Amino acid sequence: MKYAVIAISGTQHQIEENQKIVVDLLALKEGETSTTDQVLLTVNEDKIAIGTPTVKGASVEFKVLKHFQGEKLKVFKYKSKSRYRKTTGFRAQLTEIEITKINF
Q1: Residue 102 DSSP SS3
Q2: How many CB atoms lie within 10 A of CB 58?
Q3: Is the separation of the CB atoms in 23 and 61 below 8 Å?
Q4: Which terminus of the chain has a lower count of CB atoms within 10 Å, N or C?
Q5: How far apart are CA 47 and CA 23, in angstroms?
Q6: What is the pTM of this model?
Q7: Full DSSP string of 24-93
Q8: Residue in 1, 104, 5, 14 with CA at minimum distance from that of residue 59
Q9: Tens digits of per-residue pLDDT, 20-63?
Q10: Considering only CA atoms, which of 32, 1, 4, 33 is closest in space to residue 102?
């Protein structure tokens, strides 16, 4: 089994080749390809490489598929006995990417 753990958009993801994942908004255009060298761990069959903090020479290539908004969240603030009520909403800006290649 061949997989890696990467840090992208402030979160860590365990990925395999040809896998699609959703991350926070990236400053790339749809259809654009990019690479990241923030590889924290690689596993290639029985060879395991753990980074300190990243694995030297390892990189991951990915393609941006689409940008979209996440599900709407309602945020409600309330204080008892003072008639204070406030409702706001939040929708996360997300990017779907496809992992094209893991370079060990």
Answers
A1: strand
A2: 21
A3: no
A4: N
A5: 28
A6: 0.84
A7: E--SS-TT-EEEE--EEEEEETTEEEE-SSS-TT-EEEEEEEEEEE---EEEEEEETTTTEEEEEEE--E
A8: 104
A9: 999 999 999 999 999 999 999 999 989 999 999 999 999 999 99
A10: 4
- The position carrying tokens 């030297």 is 56
For the sheet containing 59-69, what is the strand order?
20-24, 93-103, 59-69, 33-36
Question: Which residue's structure tokens are 């290539």?
Answer: 61
Distance CA 61, CA 34 (A): 6
Nearest to 26 by CA among 81, 91, 97, 84: 97
Domain boundaries of the chain, sorted by first residue: 2-103
Of 95, 102, 103, nearest to 26 by C-alpha is 95
Rg of the Cα trace of the chain? 19
